[in-house]
Design goal:
The protein is mostly helical. About 55% of the residues lie in helices and about 5% in strands. The protein has helices spanning about 15-20, 35-45, 85-105, 115-125, 130-165, 170-180; strands spanning about 5-10, 45, 65, 80. The strands form 2 sheets. The protein has a two-stranded antiparallel ribbon. A two-stranded antiparallel sheet has the order 2-4. About 15% of the residues are buried.
């Protein structure tokens, strides 16, 4: 049996659960071929510097990431990820989470109280433990993305009005609802 080399990262519990589910449900997590995360590993993995200890979990919540075997970088030799590259990997994972959340939930727009059930259903579908703490964290992330989207939509509308010289005064919420309703 070949020895497995891992590196360890700290993620919020709901993102950790989602990532494990998205990558096949096993620990250590192995990123899919051609994924951005795997590309980061391929680009930034280095030989372990002298006087540096191998990467070990800091606590039981750290997630083990399996270092894959690349054509020109064997994990036996290239098994160290510098601190800044590890930060880039974590940001990439969080970004993929946000994109998945947005792609799955944005089309439902403003549905009021049903949002709670929608997020709980999404959590269940994505392998995330259904508890209030996870729900609150995900709902806040989703709301930040919605606010960003709406502010960009308003800015785009204002720019169009400024260029045309006439007001296209319409309610952004109705516009968003109509857009999602017919797509």
């Amino acid at each position: 049996m070949t020895e497995q080399y891992c590196l360890y990262i700290k993620l919020e519990p709901y993102i950790k659960q989602w990532l494990i589910y998205e990558c096949g449900g096993t620990i250590p997590v192995l990123f899919p071929r051609n994924s951005a995360e795997r590309g980061i590993l391929e680009l930034f993995l280095e030989e372990l510097p002298e006087n540096t200890l191998p990467d070990l979990p800091k606590d039981e919540d750290d997630l083990a990431i399996l270092i894959p075997c690349f054509k020109h970088k064997k994990p036996e030799k290239y098994n160290y990820l510098p601190h800044t590259a590890k930060i880039a990997l974590i940001k990439c994972i969080k970004n993929r989470f946000d994109v998945q959340l947005w792609l799955d939930l944005h089309r439902f727009g403003y549905i009021g109280k049903q949002q709670q059930d929608l997020i709980y259903a999404w959590m269940q579908k994505k392998g995330i433990e259904s508890d209030e703490r996870n729900w609150n964290s995900i709902a806040k992330r989703d709301q930040r993305k919605r606010n960003y989207y709406l502010s960009n939509l308003r800015a785009k509308r204002a720019k169009t009005e400024e260029k045309s010289g006439k007001s296209t005064h319409y309610n952004v919420h109705i516009h968003v609802y109509s857009y999602f309703r017919y797509t």
